[in-house]
Design goal:
Number of strands: 2
Distance between the termini: 25 Å
Helix content: 55-70%
Largest sheet: 2 strands, antiparallel
């Protein structure tokens, strides 16, 4: 939440998973809507995270998992360095640049998931300090992405509201992601 996933997109498992993943991606993207670069890079809450950092981390995470599932993952030490760097946007990684890269990463993930004959297809996940690794299904992968992006969308909500008081629903309506409901129906 806060957008309602279109039930028409949920006619099968794959469509439902992709629709819910995209809904969570939208939460992170909308959190940066209308902010200056300075605001997007600010860390106004108790966390060291900024909205720019969350955008970069989400796109890097999605690209990293896709590379892992495709078996094109690199050296584990390089991966750890990339993960650590994912929380630090470079000077040239503006909100506009990060949003464009995130859209590209999302398209790549969606295309890969749609091309699979089955979400039961497997891949080998390497061991990380936080995960034992092992055989995973692509279904697990997309559910994990939904979980991770949802967690970070929540972080983004808090950061954004701390910056200027705009909550997730304010941004949903402001960006046109969903029309503002007719609240008068609650008065009846």
């Amino acid at each position: 939440m806060p957008v309602i996933v279109n039930p028409e997109a949920c006619q099968d498992e794959r469509g439902a998973l992709l629709a819910y993943l995209d809904a969570q991606r939208g939460g992170i993207r909308r959190a940066a809507h209308g902010l200056t670069e300075e605001q997007a890079r600010s860390t106004p809450s108790a966390s060291a995270l900024s909205l720019s950092a969350l955008l970069k981390h989400a796109l890097m995470g999605e690209r990293g998992w896709l590379a892992t599932a495709r078996g094109t993952v690199g050296d584990p030490k390089e991966q750890m360095a990339e993960w650590e760097d994912s929380f630090r946007p470079a000077a040239d990684e503006t909100v506009e640049v990060l949003l464009a890269r995130y859209e590209e990463a999302a398209r790549e993930t969606d295309a890969a998931l749609r091309a699979l004959p089955s979400l039961d297809a497997t891949f080998e996940a390497p061991r990380y300090p936080w995960d034992e690794g092992g055989t995973r299904t692509w279904r697990w992968l997309v559910l994990h992405m939904i979980e991770e992006i949802a967690r970070h969308a929540g972080h983004a909500d808090v950061i954004r509201e701390t910056i200027d008081g705009k909550g997730a629903f304010d941004l949903v309506f402001e960006t046109g992601a969903m029309p503002e409901p007719d609240w008068s129906v609650l008065e009846r």
